[in-house]
Each structure stands twice: as C-alpha cells, then as structure tokens.
Amino acid sequence: MSLTAALGRAGKHESADARVKTPIASTRNLVKQYGAGETAVTALAEVDVEIARGEFTVIMGPSGSGKSTLMHCLAGLDTPTSGSVTVDGLEVHNLRQRQLTKLRRTKIGFIFQSFNLVPTLTAEENITLPLDLAREKVDQDWFDEIIAAVGLEGRLKHRPSELSGGQQQRVACARALIARPAIIFADEPTGNLDSQAAGNVLGFLRDCVTQFDQSIVMVTHDPLAASYAHRVVFLADGQITGQLTGPTVESVAAMHLEISSSSTQAGA
Ligand code: ADP
Ligand code: MG
After folding, report:
1. Among 66, 123, 214, 243, which one is least packed by beta carbons within 10 Å?
2. For residues 55 and 215, is the Cβ–Cβ distance under 8 A?
3. What is the number of the ligand closest to the CA of 72?
4. At a CB cut-off of 8 Å and minimum separation 6, what does 92 contact?
5. Ligand 2 centre and the CA of 236: distance in Å?
6. Which of 30, 68, 71 is the pocket-test mutation for ligand 1 (most atoms within 8 Å of CB)?
7. Does domain 3-267 have CATH number 3.40.50.300?
8. Distance between CA 177 and CA 174 in Å, rounded?
9. What is the number of the ligand 1 atom nearest to the C-alpha of 32?
C-alpha cells in the first residue's frame, strides 16, 4: 500500500477523535535519583507529563536537565526511584524484567544520537533485528513501505561502516518502526548529522506521525528540529517548566533562551 493510501486509510475523522483519546504515555510524580547521600543527584523531581497519541512531541532543556533520564524511564530502559510511568495502558514501573524486555521489543522503538547499529549486520539485518530477537515474522509489505519512505532502496546489503551518517540514522529509524511500536523515542537523533541529513531524518519522523499515525517523542537542542513537532515540552533542573503547541523556530528559540537563562541563574 502506498503512503498516500495509508494516509487515506487513517481517515481524517478518526484522527480528530484520536486527539482526545487517553495519552499514549504518561508519568506521575516521577522521581529519579542517582547515587545516595551527599553525592545524590536528583535527575527528575516529580515530573507529571502526558504524551498525546499520534502526535510528535519534542522535549527541550539545558544539558543535564533530565531529558535523557525522562526518555529512559518512559521507555523502560531505566527504573524510576518513585512515581509511575504508563505506556499504552501498561504500568511500566510495575513490570518485571521479562515483561520489560517484551515491552521494549514490541511497544517501543528507540533512536539514539549515535545510531547504535550492529556493525557486523547489514542494513536489512539491523532493521529486522527487533523482530528477529522477538522471533516474529517480518511483514514484507510493511518492510518495503518503510524502506521506500526512508529512501534506503539499494543500500540494504551494506554494513553500517559503508553508509553515511544520515543513512545510518535512517536505518535506525526504520529499525525503530519495524515492529509497529506504540511509541518511538528519539534522543537527539540529528545531533551527529549535517543539516541536510538532519532534515531528511526529521521529515521522515514527521511523516511517520502524519502518515502512519505513529506517536513520537524526540529530544533536541535545535529550534529548527523542534519546529517539526506538534508540541514542545521544556525541562529544567528535572522539572517541566513550560510547553508550546504548534511551535515555530522563533517561538521555540525565545522560550529556550528564557528557560536556559532562568535555570542558570537559579543554579548560580
Ligand atoms: P540531559 O539528557 O538533559 O542532558 P540527563 O538525563 O542525562 O540530562 O542527566 C540529568 C542529571 O542526572 C545530570 O545531572 C546527570 O549528571 C545525572 N545523571 C544522568 N545519568 C546518571 C548516572 N548514570 N549516574 C549518575 N548521574 C547521572
Ligand atoms: Mg541527554
């Protein structure tokens, strides 16, 4: 099925309803502390956040404000000190190790700044890895649709070292999508890319949301990257300090500057 057909199938009336449905992911009083005693660091201080289904949400904030920790707690890659995390109706903070592994393989896609591809596998093998690990069959039509959308035809037999940074990140994007996860987390996915390659990756992520009704949360420092999102949530010192819906490059840059300067003053 073509992307346009997929878009048609999603249906405009349905997506209006989807906006008011329960959030795809949320946290309540989420606290994450690293270490103990005098050297303890509070990375997240009672964070309440809701991630809307079928939307592109961006998280911004100064370095060390807890962005990666929040993403890792949401994705079941890190255990909260206290509070709750819910993803697609599952209470992630209550899951046992085996259930967490299943959650990460079936419901969650994760895209890292450093791509995190397996160097000895081809692009194709990297993309189907989540399904291979879960011993599930690859849906060839879906695979072909993703490859076409991400523009990796003719590169599938290459290993990561034979691909450019932008191509490697598009392999990582395809890998994140292959199991049709409920939600995709991307932690500074364009941080290591030049502006053209970054634009390709961002365009692809936005298409995933508008055409496949995928829910995506992305961390970025870049107001231009943030302007691809439906909503931007700002973090400072482990707390949510503001948000913008329908962000533009200008509105994000202004908010980012304001929050960064007030958090620096508070920390000084
Ligand atoms: P960001 O992604 O916004 O830069 P992080 O979530 O990586 O921030 O970090 C938030 C805070 O938690 C920082 O002060 C960082 O030093 C601290 N931190 C993160 N991971 C660890 C860890 N594994 N051990 C100790 N401190 C950590
Ligand atoms: Mg980080």
Report:
1. 243
2. yes
3. 1
4. 73, 74, 76, 85, 86, 100, 103
5. 12
6. 68
7. yes
8. 5
9. 12
